[in-house]
């Protein structure tokens, strides 16, 4: 991440995060933005330990769910960029995961924070691709790339549904 930050505040709390993304309540997986700039974001969470984490099944939280954590990091970054430009980010649909490597089987038993670093690799008006790395106590848990197609936000023409 470059030393120049697009936003005026480096740390951003959960309340602001939920104002930027469609994920609400327990489905908002990130607690805090640690730093961000035009090309990347770094976030942290303790939610992987929460018994009400909506991604849990059979009493645990599997490492494959770190892909959702990476995708939400993209959404938060897009929301921050759009907000800094005076607008709102369009909703996106995750369409592809590539090069995903999971280095653990489960994450629910990890005592410390999860930290995600996500870097915008490609950005167009209609799609984006990010690389993400998620770690715990500086040990890499998962990495990969995610692609999102952005939904149009224009209103329908008058007289058309």
UniProtKB/TrEMBL annotation:
It comes from the Bacteria. InterPro entries: ApeP-like_dehydratase (IPR016776), HotDog_dom_sf (IPR029069). This is Phosphotransferase. It comes from Novilysobacter luteus.
């Amino acid at each position: 991440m470059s030393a120049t930050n697009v936003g005026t505040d480096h740390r951003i709390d959960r309340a602001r995060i939920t104002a930027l993304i469609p994920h609400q309540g327990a489905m908002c997986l990130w607690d805090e933005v640690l730093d961000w700039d035009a090309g990347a974001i770094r976030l942290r969470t303790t939610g992987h330990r929460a018994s009400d984490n909506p991604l849990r099944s059979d009493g645990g939280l599997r490492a494959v769910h770190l892909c959702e954590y990476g995708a939400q990091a993209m959404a938060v970054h897009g929301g921050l960029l759009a907000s800094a430009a005076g607008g709102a980010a369009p909703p996106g649909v995750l369409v592809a995961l590539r090069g995903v490597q999971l280095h653990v089987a489960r994450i629910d038993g990890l005592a410390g924070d999860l930290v995600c670093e996500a870097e915008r690799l490609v950005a167009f008006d209609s799609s984006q691709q990010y690389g993400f790395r998620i770690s715990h106590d500086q040990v890499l848990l998962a990495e990969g790339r995610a692609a999102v197609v952005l939904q149009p936000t224009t209103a329908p023409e008058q007289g058309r549904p």
